[in-house]
Amino acid sequence: MSNADSVAFVRTETLPQLPPPASQAGIVKWMRDNLFSSIPSTILTLVSLYVIYTLVTSVFPWFANGIWNTDSLAECRDALQGQVGACFSVLSERWNQLLFGFSYPVEHYWRPGLAFIMLFAAAAPVMFFDLPRKLLLFTAVYPFIAFWLIWGGTIYTPIFAMVGFVVGYIVYARYVKQSFAMGFFGGVIAAMITWIIGGYITDAIAPAAPFLEAVQSRDMGGFMLNMTLGVVCVSLSVPLGIVLALGRQSDMPIIKWICVIFIEFIRGVPLITLLFVANVVLAYFLPPGTTFDLILRVIIMITMFSAAYIAEVIRGGLAALPKGQYEAGDSLGLDYAQSMRLIILPQALKISIPGIVNVAVGLFKDTVLVSVISMFDLLGMIRGPILSSTDWNGVYWELFMAASVLFFVVCYGISQYSQWLERRLATDHR
């Protein structure tokens, strides 16, 4: 054998990568791993496909033959001529009542519509951290602008309401270094005094102020009412829940037991009972002749209800933190308020995101319970004025399906945002 035949061959370049087998890539691999990984999984997949096929073939003609341009259920059935089909005409004719109620002035629909659009701009700086922090100024002002747009009246009412919050925060920041309780209650008292003084000033100068036509709360309804209650109550219940959670862990016995009694009592009472209290019982505790707006009463009760649950969720987040996190604040020389704001609460709130979102979604869906106290929200409009009319008596699936779609879009959006936020903040501590 020659020397040339005994020299080993060494490849000087790498071979190109070969594509994976068809069974180990793409949709085929996904189906094998998720749908046909075993005999029981294959059986369940086939049964599920059959059920889906049956539902689609049964429901599709109902959608495809839907009628959109009639003025009553009778005309709708005449147009179908005995065929299976939906009567979507009730949605095209009563859309304004489903969204705004039947008493809100038609010429002022632009006001709640504008407030709804502005809501996204106000919520964006809070929801997405990459936006400039200067936009938070509009977020702070938005609640007062939205109130003026939806309810109308003199512009001095939201202005003095905003001034009251500013004064309360200044007092809180001044005294919180001495005592958290002193700062908190001092801020509340200062804000209330400012609002009382502002009320007298507003009554005196109201005729000369910029004015939008006032809309009474009893004229509000439809999905607008559900959105108003949901946004306001969630926004108020989160900070109130934080205060209750911190109060329950306080070393001061009076503060601790007030928070404990409040949380346990509210969590032990159904929401519908609190709504009846807001509607009927609360009026007996007010001075004769006193008027207390029904929507405001409902907002207070729903906020208290959700705040009690959020407080327990946040308390769980606080309990999940190791003791060393609390000691870190002491070692840095931070007081209680600084330690909570800079170290403890940011971590506890990240852990509590799934629970807070769960309460928020449940709260938004529970706003339909206001229909039992004669408030015409979306469900109240369907069960009341629309179905009781002779033109649309008997239309059920179309109306309740539309209500389901509206609630699903909002709740699904909240759920998807919370999942994005969990990934962004890495709340699983990986």
Mean of all residue-level pLDDT scores: 86
Number of helices, where a helix is a run of at least 4 consecutive DSSP H or I residues: 17
Shape: globular
In oligomeric terms, what are we looking at?
Answer: single chain
Overall radius of gyration: 29 Å
Record the strand order, biggest sheet. Answer: 1-2
Short description:
This protein is mainly α and 430 residues long. Helices cover 69% and strands 1% of the residues.
Task: Characterise the protein shown here.
Helix 7 packs antiparallel against helix 8 (156-175). 69% of the residues lie in helices and 1% in strands. The mean pLDDT is 86. It has helices at 3-6, 26-34, 39-64, 73-80, 89-100, 110-127, 136-151, 156-175, 180-205, 222-248, 253-267, 271-279, 294-320, 323-331, 336-366, 378-388, 397-425, and strands spanning 153-154, 211-212. The protein starts with a helix and ends in a 5-residue tail after the last helix. A two-stranded antiparallel ribbon has the order 1-2. It has 430 residues and is mainly alpha-helical.
Keywords:
single chain, about 425 residues, mainly alpha, two-stranded antiparallel sheet, globular
